[in-house]
Structure formats: C-alpha cells, structure tokens
C-alpha cells in the first residue's frame, strides 16, 4: 500500500465510523500533511481517491466535505396484496440452488461470505487440530441442545446485541435454516398465517410453505423495514400467529430497522399476543458500531425466538446455527431433536474457541470494513454503468444489495441470458411468496477484488441495456 | 491369542456363517487335531470354550453338535390397541437424551456403536487430512442433495441389499433422523395416520408427533416383524397414509423380517396405494451374509422411501444419512432444503472415500463379527443372572437387544434406581406411542470388554431381583 492509499484508508475509516459525520468539513490539505508527516501531493492524492469513491466532495474555495450519502434512488416501498397466500416459487428457488458452485465467473448470486481472509486461520487450525488429535470427540452422539461450551460463548457474544441469555436458553441448530424451520413449526399449527416482510428471504418462505402455513406479506420500506402501520391493520383483520422478520441487515434489502421501530414491533406482538421469529443472521456484520440491538433485547415475556448462525459472519459450510427460543424452548427442543437429532460437534467446538480467544471479533471487524468498502465500490460501478432509472438499496451491513430495474425488465429472463456468459444473480421473484418483484434482483458483493466485480457488473449492465425499453425502442426505429 | 482360542474362533466363524448349520455334527477331536496340527487337548479346550458359549453341545458317545439356537424365551407378540393414537412419551425420551454421555459405568442405554476399532483409522485419517489440507472445501455452501461422490458410492453400496439406484435418486441428510423426519412429512398431511411396528424406535414416533400425525401401532412378532394380517385389517379399517417399518435388524427387537414377508408387505402397500418408509439404519450390520434385502429392492413403482445413515455402521457423530425417496423425490428435496439446507461436506467426502477404498467393507465385517460374539455373550450372562421368567429377543444383527421382565416390574422405576449406581438402559415405554411395555427395556451390547458387560449385567440383575415379585413376597414373609 502506498502512502496516499494508507492515508485514504485512514480517512475512510474515520468517516465510516462517524468520527467525521455527513456534511462535516474535513481537515485542510496542509493540516493533514503536517499531522501525518507526508507531502501535500500525497494528501491531495488521498482526497482525490475518496472523491472518486464518492465519500468526500470538494467545495470550491472551502475545502473537502463528507458527502451526503446518496439514498435518493432507493427501491420503492413494496405493495403486496393484503391477504394470506400460499407460498409458491419452489421450482425457481431449486433452480438457483442447483446452480450453486457452478458459476465460472464472479459469484454474485448466493449469499456467500468472503472466506479468504487470513483472520479465519485460527478457526481452520482448530478444526484441523480437533480432527487430528481428538477424532473420537467427533464420533459419538452428543447433547441435542448442542455443545455447552458454544452455548456459553454465545451468551457472551449476544450481550453486544442487548441480550442476557443463559446457556440453557439456547439450542444449537444445523445453520440458521434449521433454526428458522424449527421455530416456524414451534409457534404454529398447520393452516396458520405468518406475517412476513416483502421482499423476504426465500428459505424462510419455503419453510412456511413446508409447514403448511400461509404467508401474509406486509408492505416494507427500504430504509425502515416492515410497515408497522400495515402490520397492525393486518393483525386486526387476520388471525396471524407469528411475525417473521429479518430486521437487522435485511436479506435482500439491507436495511436495519431503527431501534425504536424494533421496540414498537415487539409491543405490537405483545398487544396481539403473538410470537416474533427474528432472523439475525447478518446482525454481527452490520456496519454500525456497536452493532444494532435485536428485537430479542426488548423481550420481557419470552415471545421472541431469535435465530442466527455463523454462515454469514464466518462460513456457511460449518452449518452452525442457534436459537434463543424464549418461552417456546420445550417445543423447539422437541422439533429440533426430531428434525436432525444432534449437530456435529467439531464445528461447534471450533467456533466456541474462535469466540473465546478473540478471533471471531477480529474477523468480523475485518469483514465489516471490507464489506463496507465493497458496498461503496459496487454502488459506484452500478451508478456508472446501469441505466439511470435503476434503483438500488443502501445496505448498512452484510454483503448483499437489492436492485430494481425499469418495470418492463423481467429478471427471470435476464438471469437466463446472463448465465450463458457466466454472470449470475438471484432474481426478484424468489423473494416473494407469489413471484412478484420481477424487475428486481439481489447481488452479492463479498468478493474482494474490485476489478473482478467491476467486470462482472459491466457485463451485467450491457445485458440489462439490451433488455431496457429505450434500447428496444431505438432498435425498432 | 492362544492356540485353542484361535481354533475356537475359527469354529465359531464357521458356525456363524452357516458352514456348520444348527444340529450338524462337528468334526471329531482327533480329526481337528490332525487337520490343524494341534494337540488333542487343544481341540478339547476349544470345544469346551464353545460349549460354554452355548454354540456347541457334546452328546455322549456321539461327539459335538451345533446347538439349536435357543429362542424359546422370546418376548411375546405385542398387542397394541387397534386405533390411531397421538404419540406421547416426549418427556421420557428427552429425559433419556439428556442423559447422553453422563453414564460413568458401561453404556447400555444408547444405540451407540463401538467406535474403538482400528478399522476406523483410514476414515479418521481422511477427516484429519481434509481439515488440514483442504479447509476451504468445508466452508462453502454446497449441493443440497449432498456430495455427488458420496451418492455415487451409495449406489454401489446398496447393490448388496438388492437396489439399483442412480445418484440422482439420492438425497443426503443429517443422519437417519433427518431422513425419517423428512420422509414422514413428504408422504403425509397433518392429521393423517401412519402405521408402525410395536414397539418402534422413539425417534420415528416423535417425528410422527411433530408432523401432527397419528400413529397406528400394529401387533409385531419378535421374529418375523410387523403382522401383515393385523396390518391388512388396519388398512381396511382406517385411512392409513403410510407404513413406517424397520424390517432389518429392528430397533428395539432385533428381528429381520423374512424376505418373502418383506415382499408381501410391499404388495400390501401397493394394493392399498400407500407409501412405505423403510428404516435400514442397521441393515449393513446384519449377521447374515450376504446382508438381507431391503423392501426397496422389490420396489417397482417408487413407493418405498428408503432411509439410512452411517450412524450405526460407522459413527453417529458424523451425521451422515441418506434417503432413496423414489417417486417422492421432489417433495423430499424441498423438505430437506427447508429443514437444514445442505449437510457439512467433510464427513460426506470422508465416508465416500472410506467406501471407495474398501475400508467400510472391512470395518463392517469386523463389527458384525464382534457384535455377534458380544450378543452371544450378553445372552449368556442374562441367562445366568436374570430371573428365570425373563424373556429376551434374539437379534440377528446390530448391537441392541430387548428384554421383557416379569409383568409386575416397572422399567421406569427400575431405570431411576439403576442410574444411581451408574447402570443405564432404555426403558420400554419409550418404544410405544402411549407408554406401554412398562416391563420391557433395551440393552446395548456394543462394548467389547466382556468383563465390563458382565459386571454391569450382574449389577442390573441384582436390582431387578429387588423388584421381582418373588423377592418382594419373600421379604413380606
Ligand atoms: C436471512 C437469512 N436467513 C437464514 C439463512 C440461512 O442461513 P444458514 O446457511 O445458516 O442456514 C440465510 C442464508 O442465505 C439468510 O440470508
Ligand atoms: C431405527 C433407528 N432409526 C434411526 C436412528 C437415528 O439415526 P441417526 O443417528 O443417523 O440420526 C436410530 C438411532 O438410534 C435408530 O435406532
């Protein structure tokens, strides 16, 4: 890293951690040069870099200022039909899942984290050591609630999101998917209705389908999440059994519900006496510091079932997830046992040690930094190459982002076309119970190499332009 | 091993593999001495050993003969109530599961295989190598149907049970428990009735409960399995949706349904147009060679969902199971994805290699031999120490055995008492939908050390005698 890059990195971190806030004036070039013992031209180079990344802007004769984050092209608030519906879209989901691992080019499709960071090394070492030196530990049946050592560490970890949990309040699962599936079954009977965000993660919707439930999609705002007003209307009108939300670094929209709205959501559930299933799988890689509180942190009567895993913060292949099931613990334990008995112990022990020895904290700190830069870069290249009527979400955590194209473009057709050239993404209809969001799609930005991403996005942009009504109109002239 | 022990082992193997059949006259002492180049007294010592093990008997003036296997004290045919019932017993099951790993003495309770054999070494080495040299392989999302390499090997493996499968016909699961749970959900709707053996494995019954189904327990014979006659009556009378059976090395009874009865069961399912879920988790450690055919091997129209895992043949901690779902493949894939997404890949790859390189065949050959000897030993010590009115199953595979005590003895009370002295077993009511078999229990005999088992059984016998009506009558005199 050259001097100017180092300085730019430093300034970027200060801005990202709100040391300099939006609209703030930044130190003058001279001041910085003195402070850091570098030349004037080095500082100028650093500022030019940040300008290019749209983090700072130069105002003539006044110096450099932190940019207002541009959120003006956000996706629209969703308007799903206001009645409970059967979930469809399984074939589309399966089609995408079967495509796992087959992409030759850049992986923009799956919600797969970056797993190349050297901060993962201690974890990998522990895994190798366990396999080598204590193989017998991995052979036996073990506690169906999961390793006590891991549950202990989880209690420590979740303090950061405002929770006070006891190891007995936790059940380890095979990833967050099992956690969601178990919780959905634990709070409902076949035929019941569950309220969800719109768009929503397809894995939870398919779990609703498999449990013979109906989904009630609630209008959702791209910055503040599920509309509490619309939710309350729905609760008045329908016998909804549970609310299912991903309020922190939402998949696919990337928003984090403001804390007061989380609390209001909890109060609403309380007044209608229903359960909340809270999916916090991206919570630890929020760009906010300290990380946002969970709805669970407001829970005084055990109605929140908090679900998470290390699939997004560490690696999905480990399949280590967990539930803090509150008052539903006994039912959750039953369904978890029935679903898959116990979970393999090595990954659990390795993660427990990773947390205990501080490796996890270090790793997610690194990941948060990387992902935030990668988000900025992706936003920038999208802005540079996609048609100007494109709307894009502004994720404040995780590594996925939602794009809304001109309403006439069909993302299912688009994805078929793109696959042929080795570019992939997750088409919008997967995130709806009934195949809406046809002009939307989700992109992954966990890839570190800017060049790779830029090339993939340029290819994608070219194909989008082919589908764009303006191009079509021009052609037909 | 001394000379006479070696010879005894040899003869035992010949008997066990039906080279000498029940009632056959064995070679004379002189003949054997000549044939093996050992002394007369060595042969005599070997025969004495086999006599003690009740494998051979001396007839005055005629020489040695293979014993009739004594199956006269078999448990009775079960007589469950002939109507569909809700499954209860979860608290009792949980109580036992929570007890996993806490036994200080001999583990007689859980259906845990012996994992100390050196034949497992190649597998452990592969696991350690994968963790060390290809850690990245274990991190990513992967095929939700499981590793193709493992599915390939499974196709080869299942030829031994009469199946012809294609890798696309298989779905890998998190143990056999997930396989059963997924299949039960795939073939039924909430409220449906499933016919099961009585007694039955508690894990499958609890899965029936969790899927909101009712269980119809069918009378079951300790040697031939589920009564086809009673099953047909039940099928006539109730709208049964599926039959759930463990026809090979049944848990807890140990019987293997004769092949013709397996075929009849399949035909019955065909004529009532319903599904069969076949749990074959112990099939590969049957003492018969070649191993018994599965019901799946008779399946011409895809109505059999075959479930298994490597939990009993290799090690449960690996959590590698699988389904051959026949015509239910799409539904099974959906429910499997929803339940836990993909399975960890290292254990799958390690098992695939273990099979490919012949280690698996070698391992189960060893295990079958050990378990058969250990069964004989357990039967012998039970006979020597338990009250004479005890009935015992005669497992022809696996490492578990069913005991029926005097009807006045309550195995739930017995287990509480025994736990205090560090001896444990699985009480009978766990194996019934509604808490029957109070005077029954299941014992594990996977432990290799004869002395340990003998001591544990003696302790158990002493406590059983305390509970026995004769002792109580004597005391009250
Ligand atoms: C919101 C959300 N919840 C749950 C999951 C499933 O996580 P896991 O891989 O731990 O099962 C995902 C993965 O894509 C997700 O995005
Ligand atoms: C008959 C039967 N089926 C299934 C299972 C569950 O096997 P797994 O540990 O592979 O989930 C067991 C385990 O005890 C069993 O005895």
UniProtKB/TrEMBL annotation, chains A, B:
SMART domains: HTH_GNTR (SM00345). PROSITE patterns: HTH_GNTR (PS50949). Transmembrane segments: none annotated. The keyword Plastid does not apply. Pfam families: Aminotran_1_2, GntR. InterPro entries: Aminotransferase_I/II_large, HTH_trans_reg/aminotransferase, PyrdxlP-dep_Trfase, PyrdxlP-dep_Trfase_major, PyrdxlP-dep_Trfase_small, Tscrpt_reg_HTH_GntR, WH-like_DNA-bd_sf, WH_DNA-bd_sf. One of its GO terms (molecular function) is transaminase activity. It comes from the Bacteria. In the C-terminal section; belongs to the class-I pyridoxal-phosphate-dependent aminotransferase family. This is PLP-dependent aminotransferase family protein. It comes from Marinomonas colpomeniae.
């Amino acid at each position: 890293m050259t001097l100017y890059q180092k300085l730019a990195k430093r300034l970027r971190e200060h801005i990202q951690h709100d040391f300099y806030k939006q609209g703030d004036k930044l130190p003058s070039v001279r001041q910085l040069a003195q402070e850091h013992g570098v030349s004037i031209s080095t500082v100028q180079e650093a500022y030019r870099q940040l300008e290019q990344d749209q983090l700072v802007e130069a105002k003539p004769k006044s110096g450099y200022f932190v940019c207002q984050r541009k959120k003006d092209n956000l996706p629209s608030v969703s308007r799903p039909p206001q009645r409970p519906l059967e979930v469809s879209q399984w074939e589309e989901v399966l089609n995408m899942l079967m495509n796992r691992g087959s992409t030759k080019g850049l992986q923009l499709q799956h919600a797969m984290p970056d797993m190349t960071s050297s901060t993962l090394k201690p974890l990998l070492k522990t895994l190798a050591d366990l396999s080598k030196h204590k193989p017998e530990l991995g052979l036996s049946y073990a506690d169906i609630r999961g390793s006590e050592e891991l549950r202990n560490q989880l209690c420590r970890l979740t303090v950061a999101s405002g929770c006070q949990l006891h190891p007995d309040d936790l059940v380890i699962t095979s990833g967050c998917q099992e956690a969601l599936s178990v919780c959905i079954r634990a709070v409902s009977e076949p035929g019941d209705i569950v309220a969800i965000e719109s768009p929503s993660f397809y894995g939870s919707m398919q779990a609703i389908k498999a449990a013979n439930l109906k989904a009630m999609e609630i209008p959702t705002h791209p910055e503040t999440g599920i509309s509490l007003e619309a939710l309350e209307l729905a609760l008045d009108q329908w016998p909804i059994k549970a609310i299912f939300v991903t309020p922190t670094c939402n998949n696919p929209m990337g928003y984090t519900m403001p804390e007061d709205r989380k609390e209001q959501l909890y109060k609403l559930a309380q007044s209608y006496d229903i359960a909340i299933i809270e999916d916090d799988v991206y919570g630890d890689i929020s760009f906010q510091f300290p990380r946002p509180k969970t709805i669970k942190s407001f829970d005084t009567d055990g109605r929140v079932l908090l679900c998470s895993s290390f699939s997004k913060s560490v690696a999905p292949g480990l399949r280590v997830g967990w539930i803090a099931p509150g008052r539903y613990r006994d039912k959750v334990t039953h369904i978890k046992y029935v679903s898959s008995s116990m979970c393999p112990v090595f990954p659990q022990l390795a993660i427990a040690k990773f947390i205990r020895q501080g490796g996890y904290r270090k790793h997610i700190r690194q990941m948060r930094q990387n992902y935030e830069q990668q988000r900025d870069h992706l936003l920038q290249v999208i802005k540079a190459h996609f048609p100007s009527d494109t709307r894009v979400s502004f994720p404040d955590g995780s590594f996925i982002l939602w794009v809304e194209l001109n309403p006439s473009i069909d993302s299912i057709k688009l994805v078929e076309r793109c696959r042929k050239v080795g570019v992939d993404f997750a088409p919008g209809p997967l995130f709806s119970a009934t195949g809406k969001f046809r002009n939307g799609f989700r992109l992954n930005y966990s890839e570190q190499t800017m060049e790779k991403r830029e090339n993939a996005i340029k290819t994608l942009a070219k194909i989008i332009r082919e589908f764009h009504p303006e191009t079509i109109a021009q052609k037909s002239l």
